[in-house]
UniProtKB/TrEMBL annotation:
Name of protein: Uncharacterized protein
Family statement: Belongs to the CoA-transferase III family.
Biased composition (Basic and acidic residues): 1-15
GO molecular function: catalytic activity
Length: 438
């Protein structure tokens, strides 16, 4: 964020004499419409990217901008964006080295940077609409953004002015109040950890074996021991898994894992292969998310102000009450982001539910956590009371889990039908909400 930026618009003739609109954010971050396609934009070739020296061939900040503009802001599959979002998007600068700071062949830093730019732009629009703030500059460092998925391993506790390394150490985590929730000992040894990894199959394909929170079923499916030496080297363990997995054809292994042992493994599909699957076809109309509105008569509104935690442009989500029904990584990351913007997040879990304790020092950042056992009627009643006060409910459990406790999406809408505002119910999953893998 930072100072306001001037906005300029003009017109420019290309080499063929065709006129295209040029949109300039004011400090060397312009993009222009592609002739014949009003929803596609290209960057000026002389764009200075900052941070790293431009090579003239490929630049991560430049590609991040391309993804942000073309694949998000002007993507017809990303629905119902606020009208101000494109103005906010002009005020995003991408800086960083042209070449990957982490060697990887996917557009990793580029995609994360584009998503963080989208998040920042949406927040910029919210600040303008709710608080009357001017749209501000946003700077995305693509090198820093590439560390987003690794943040649990970078988080440290400061004690008496000293940094304490606690990641992946259950004893140290418990010392600082992070209960060990690895009930199935998924992290007990490299042997159990590497039940989640990608290995080559007999037919030359690759398969993502997934041990999830309990590696036992995956290890049983592969005919392997359930335990291993905690001191064994990762390379030795990986080689052992590779030898076993190479005995299977990819389709054979996929059927074994999913149909018989009900594990979350998958063939490593190319983009084109995934799009050709029945599930890919069922989701071809979906972008980053889907929005489904209820038939409520409650008008759209901001959340109520809270005197003890007043909201402001500096803490834009302060006072927003979020009930966090999530575990593991993906969905807790959503609610951590809300907490970082000022929301009051109450995470609900239970002692009998396994979880990834090693990420709690990062993904529980800024949240309260409480234990409620939904098998108990009194605990269910307490959760219902929390939801009745909530502005947002985020759920990351498998389909049907919350329904059996009377907390489906429709149940939650019913709980708040008589108040003056509605509720936002967010459901996260891996494969989307259409098709056979949902």
């Amino acid at each position: 964020m930072g100072e306001r930026a001037p906005e300029t618009k003009g017109h420019k003739e290309d080499d063929a004499g065709a006129e295209t609109e040029v949109i300039d954010a004011g400090e060397g971050d312009p993009y222009q419409q592609v002739e014949g396609n009003p929803n596609r934009f290209s960057l000026h070739s002389n764009l200075s990217m900052g941070g790293g020296k431009a090579t003239g061939t490929y630049s991560i900040p430049k590609e991040a901008r391309h993804i942000f503009v073309n694949e998000i802001l002007y993507n017809a599959l990303v629905p119902t964006l606020p009208q101000d979002i494109k103005d906010a998007g002009k005020l995003v600068r991408f800086t960083g080295s042209d070449v990957p700071s982490i060697p990887i062949n996917w557009r990793f830093a580029e995609s994360v940077s584009a998503l963080k730019a989208f998040e920042a732009s949406m927040l910029n629009v919210l600040r303008k609409r709710k608080y009357g703030s001017e749209l501000s500059w946003v700077t995305i460092d693509t090198d820093h953004a590439s560390l987003f998925f690794m943040s649990p391993f970078l988080a440290k506790v400061v004690e008496d002015g000293e940094l304490k390394e606690i990641a992946r150490n259950p004893e140290k985590l418990e010392k600082y109040g992070f209960q060990n929730a690895d009930l199935h000992r998924a992290s007990a040894s490299p042997h159990r950890q590497l039940a989640t990894n990608i290995y080559e199959t007999k037919d030359g394909r690759f398969y993502h074996v997934h041990g999830s929170m309990n590696p036992d079923p995956t290890l049983e499916a592969l005919g392997m021991d359930l335990d291993g030496d905690p001191a064994e080297e990762y390379e030795s363990v990986s080689n052992r898994f590779q030898e076993i997995v190479r005995e299977f054809d990819s389709q054979e292994l996929d059927a074994l894992m999913n149909d018989k042992f009900r594990q979350a493994g998958t063939i490593a599909y190319s983009t084109e292969e995934f799009q050709a699957t029945e599930h890919g076809k069922a989701n071809k109309h979906v972008g980053l998310y889907e929005i489904r509105s209820s038939q409520t008569k409650q008008p759209a509104s901001w959340w109520p102000e809270n005197d003890s935690m007043p909201s402001s442009a500096e803490r834009p989500l302060a006072g927003l009450k979020v009930v966090d029904l999530t575990r593991v990584i993906a969905a807790p990351t959503i609610t951590r982001g809300l907490a970082e913007m000022g929301a009051s997040v109450m995470r609900i879990t239970a002692p009998h539910l396994t979880d990834l304790s090693g990420v709690h020092q990062d993904l529980n950042w800024g949240k309260w956590t409480a234990h409620l056992d939904l098998r108990n009627e009194d605990d269910r009643r307490q959760l219902v009371d929390l939801i009745r006060e909530a502005d947002v409910v985020v759920e990351g459990y498998r389909p049907g889990v919350m329904e059996k406790y009377g907390l489906s999406r429709n149940d939650i809408f019913e709980l708040v039908k008589d108040r003056d505002r509605g509720v936002i119910h967010v459901k996260e999953n891996c494969y989307g909400w259409n098709g056979q893998w949902r």
